[in-house]
Amino acid sequence: MSKEYLWLPFTQMKDYEQDPLIIKEGEGVKLTDIYGKEYYDGYSSLWVNVHGHKKQEIDQAIKDQLDSIAHSTLLGASNVPATLLAEKLIALSPTNLKRVFYSDSGAEAIEIALKMAFQYWYNQGNGKKTKFVTFTNGYHGDTVGAISVGAVDLFHKIYNPLMFNSLKVPFPDAYRHPSGNGGEAMKDSLQALRDTFENHHKEIAGLIMESKIQGAGGMKIMPEGFYKEVERLCREYNVLLIVDEVATGFGRTGKMFAVEHENIKPDIMTVAKGITGGYLPIAATLTTEKVHQAFYDDYTKLKTLFHGHSYTGNQLGCAAALANLELFEKENIVDSVRKKAEVLSETLQPIEQLPHTGDVRQLGFMVGIELVKDKQTKESFPFEDRIAYQTTLTMRKNGMLSRPLGDTLIFMPPLCASEQEVKEMTAIIHQSIEETIFNKSEMS
Ligand SMILES: *Cc1c(COP(=O)(O)O)cnc(C)c1O
């Protein structure tokens, strides 16, 4: 039936049909399919899971909330858990952020951020600042606004005729820069950004960027100091800084939010994925009181942010998020991720030594392992080989699920994964890379 009725996201159904996977249960860091085979959840159910599956405290919070109400609208009204969660988010996020605008997915949080930034200027009588700056290889979700500020060619190129134009600046990619050097990549990138601002700042509403690390672009980490300098240039040229913490927020990088790595104070910040511990779809766009004040006036002035979704602020989701954040305190999650990330880093070293591992990139519990045909020249495998995809199929056979990004294997364990579990998962990755590449060379 899954082959007959479903059309899965980001999936070539011809691939899926070969060997369909249907998950039935989850517990801790493991998932079980309908045939009873167990897998490590090596991608945190697409980067969302925090405390594992069937976490008692979150389960209970949702059950308790059901005894009051499942959902009422946030349009023109509030509810109890959405209010409590907003207070909590403001307390955890950078001190300049004061307002929470809810939605249901990361992409929606981005759409809201873009409309908010555009209208911030418009409401003040500046109709010229309408453009956005973004970094090459950036990813902000799949809706049309979000892809317009996205720049992963594989996902985005096809839809070009549908998109609005954004100004693209090269991301400082240390591994792929001709110099192979982060410092040089950063210098080029900052120069390009300065030029873009210098030539266009009067038309630029905001700059949007992922926070400290590009996720879907293949786990690319910014060289130290880059983030801070981008922030400084935004201030200098009067451009709103929009930071996308959808993937990085809630402990993933070893800080509660990745802005903390360089003490960044964004004007607008988006959060989603880990916010409910991976349970329910809640997202939020956080901003400053200054931005909010540009919308605050008599209704007839038409300064309202005309945006909302049916299920925004859903009580079950907000209750799950509150329970999730309580667990962060109670179980000291952020510190534990930082410690376990060191162990993870050690266990990745043998993988780094493999003949076809080009680059291993890690920030906290976000890992990308880029496979290359030639380690010296960094030449990629042929596109048709789908080398990372094939490796994830081997991983699946060996008891772990993940999804690759291009030729980069992704490892994003739930934050609760113990040192032992992390070691077992990296062992599966190691073995699967060797098996896949060995079989391939046997065949050819
Ligand atoms: C996943 C992701 C999004 C989109 O979030 P969805 O909930 O999948 O819409 C946006 N930005 C970043 C950085 C992401 O990783």
From TrEMBL:
Compartment(s) of residence: Cytoplasm
* Molecular function GO labels: adenosylmethionine-8-amino-7-oxononanoate transaminase activity
Name the domain of life this protein comes from.
Answer: Bacteria
Q: Does the keyword Metal-binding apply?
A: no
Q: Which cofactor does it need?
A: pyridoxal 5'-phosphate
> Record's Gene3D superfamilies?
Aspartate Aminotransferase, domain 1 (3.90.1150.10), Type I PLP-dependent aspartate aminotransferase-like (Major domain) (3.40.640.10)
* Coiled-coil intervals: none
Please list the reactions this protein catalyses.
Answer: (8S)-8-amino-7-oxononanoate + S-adenosyl-L-methionine = S-adenosyl-4-methylsulfanyl-2-oxobutanoate + (7R,8S)-7,8-diammoniononanoate
Transmembrane stretches in the record are none
Q: What is its EC number?
A: 2.6.1.62
Task: Give the sites modified to N6-(pyridoxal phosphate)lysine.
Answer: 273
- List the InterPro entries: Aminotrans_3, Aminotrans_3_PPA_site, BioA, PyrdxlP-dep_Trfase, PyrdxlP-dep_Trfase_major, PyrdxlP-dep_Trfase_small
The reply to whether Zinc-finger figures as a keyword in the UniProt entry is no
What is its pathway? Cofactor biosynthesis; biotin biosynthesis; 7,8-diaminononanoate from 8-amino-7-oxononanoate (SAM route): step 1/1
Enumerate the UniProt keywords alphabetically.
Answer: Aminotransferase, Biotin biosynthesis, Cytoplasm, Pyridoxal phosphate, S-adenosyl-L-methionine, Transferase
Q: Pfam family of this protein, just one?
A: Aminotran_3
Q: What is its main location?
A: cytoplasm
What does the entry list as the binding residues for substrate?
A: 139, 273, 308, 403
Locate the residues binding pyridoxal 5'-phosphate.
106-107, 244, 309-310
| UniProt site (Participates in the substrate recognition with KAPA and in a stacking interaction with the adenine ring of SAM) | 10
| Function (record text) | Catalyzes the transfer of the alpha-amino group from S-adenosyl-L-methionine (SAM) to 7-keto-8-aminopelargonic acid (KAPA) to form 7,8-diaminopelargonic acid (DAPA). It is the only aminotransferase known to utilize SAM as an amino donor.
Identify its protein family: Belongs to the class-III pyridoxal-phosphate-dependent aminotransferase family. BioA subfamily.
Task: Please identify the protein, giving its name as recorded.
Answer: Adenosylmethionine-8-amino-7-oxononanoate aminotransferase
Task: Give the gene symbol.
Answer: bioA
